[in-house]
Input
Amino acid sequence: MSPAQTNVWVPVCCDRVMRFNMFVPQGGAAYGALVCTVCSKNVTFELESLLDLDAYGEGARVLNMLGSPKPPKVDRPKAAAEDRLNDQTL
Ligand SMILES: [Zn+2]
Output
């Protein structure tokens, strides 16, 4: 496994990891919802079948993002975040 594969993007709002739930409505298209447990900001994720990123503009890339329905209810430590910024595997 290369070092890049050991990293994952974590969605953060209000210093907390955001919660991610997936929904599969009967007869409808599956979707995901990313929610901040502090301020209730939410982002909807829709499925896309695609490998042609050109339509999404320059710099578009597929991210390896963590989606947890029960993320830890603790603030993200700032010092650790700075350590990760120095990570050379991006
Ligand atoms: Zn928030």
